[in-house]
Amino acid sequence: MLRGLKILQKDHKAELWRYLQANPGWHTTSELAVVLGISVRSIRRYAKELIETEAILTSRQGYQSNQAKKSESPATTTSYTNIQRVIVNELTQNQQLNIYDLTERFYLSESTLVKLLHRIQKYVHSFDLKLVQAGDNWSLQGRELDKRRVISDILYQESEQTFIGTEAIQASFPDVSVVKIATNLKALARQANIYLNVFDFNNILLHVAIATHRTKEGYQPISEVDQLKKPVAKATQLAFTQQLIASIEKSEQVQFSSAERDSLCLIIQFSITRQHVDLDDNVQPTTMALVDDLIKYVNTMLNIDLRVLNFREQFAIHIQRLLVRSSQGYVERNPMTARIRKSSPIIYECAVLISNRLAKLNGVTIEDDEIAYIAMHIGNAVSEYINDLHKLYVVVLMPDYQGDNENFISRLERLFSQDIVIGKLVHTPEQLQQYDYPRSIDFVVQVNSEYTLPAVRYTNISQFLTQADYRRVERLVADIKHTQEKLTFTANLREFFPADNFLILDQECSRDQLFKTVCEQLVRKQVVTNSFIQQLIEREQLSSTAFGRVAIPHSLQMSALKTQGYVILAPNGIQWGDHGTEVNVVFLLAVNQAHKQAYRNIFDDLSQVAVDPKNIAELIKMTSYEDFIGELAALL
């Protein structure tokens, strides 16, 4: 793992280069300042150094990476966070570390290193470990299996939440033949007809590599899993697990203890997704009833109906496995957690609701990684439901002498299946007025006719649906959807965020200080009760509401007296929680149960704008409420 790293400060230059590499195209200094959380002046200074090495290019549009230099990273140092990982990793390998040896090694002052060690104390506490000081020496105390959980977490952090594959694991454990183990793992799984997806395969490979490395170093768990109830496994799964462990012992010339074998059996069996030939996991009736309750709860809270084809059954399989893992205290790592939270806030919020309901009904604690897996399972169903609501309602006006009406409608629906719902076929303009439609008509498609329809938008096409016809309908769809979204978005904004609920924050402020200030105002306005601040904190404890440089704090209860929100702009940033996250824009929502549909709409709209750092860079320039609302609507 990480060895012998030296640094004096966080390497913003390397962060700038990595961001430009990962996001091709031109980026303004304002946007980059928001992304990195530093001043525009600092961005220009770091950019100048990168330009001199030809790592990036500059123009009036800003900066972009020099693709010709893509493989030549200018980063030669690492950050405080990486030093923290080095120290944690070495604490798992050594009996104790001397603080003066560390100061000399990393060229850090004693006070700075003490601060890092206190951060490490908080970090390892979440793994049921203790960092203990005895004079000038520090040591890590706790179970061997918990130390391995830390090693796994370090590797995931070093990979910056991307997929951890064979190559990365091999580089981290050079004393283990990871490539050979991976080859055997694939062969044994194929022989046993066991399907392992990418997450499952890499999860097994990582844990057996850690176990092998630790065994070679002389660390063994001592009867730490004897009290755990073994998951029910089929004969083929048990045989696969035993054969894999035996093959590792033989090839790596190690002998796992009984406790080690039990631990590996748990991890491997929890990671087996499903059999290729048998997708029926015999889901228990209680689990199906629980899933029905979760689907109903999401619909009650967010007006999202997840009763789509096959979702219930497949989701029940995942929930049953999740409950078994949670009952054993096992958390399945998810390398996509941060990415899902940032890129799909409405889906992640839906997953948080489900995990909160699970915690209340079953008394289990659902970690962020497991919440992200829930989001992955429900993502398609949520997207499909929301997309249908955003489709335009269309009526086709077509003379009745056409003999291929049904075929035409079918082709039109197929071409624009993602954009329109065809509600009715009529033959004359008079019929257009005669029906009671379930929704207002967004536009009419006239086929081989040229009537003037003053009360509704329309387009004229032929029955052949040529390329020219397709482009006419496509342009009209795009124009109407954009106009509707902009009008709805602006109306929702002004309804949710009145002008007196707008604050530009210049001084330093923490998340909890901000909650106190805003909630006191909302209580005075009789929007919420005094308990609202505690509800906000409880929601943050489930999983942070920050994604990127934006936070949308809210209560899960929807118990506000009135539905209102509060906008806070913080050009200098707000420290959001204890994990070093900093945000520049906050949309605080207080929602009454009667307005849950509007809440979901505003949450969805805001998250679409907020996921792009360029948008945040523009928003924090605004100096008034009207400018802010106008800019936000324009960005949509």
TrEMBL record:
Keywords recorded for this protein, A-Z: Activator, Repeat, Transcription, Transcription regulation
Superkingdom of this protein's organism: Bacteria
Residue span(s) of domain PRD: 282-388
PTS EIIA type-2 domain span: 495-636
Gene Ontology BP term (one): regulation of DNA-templated transcription
PANTHER family: CRYPTIC BETA-GLUCOSIDE BGL OPERON ANTITERMINATOR (PTHR30185), TRANSCRIPTIONAL REGULATOR MANR (PTHR30185:SF12)
Protein name: Uncharacterized protein
Source organism per UniProt: Lactiplantibacillus mudanjiangensis
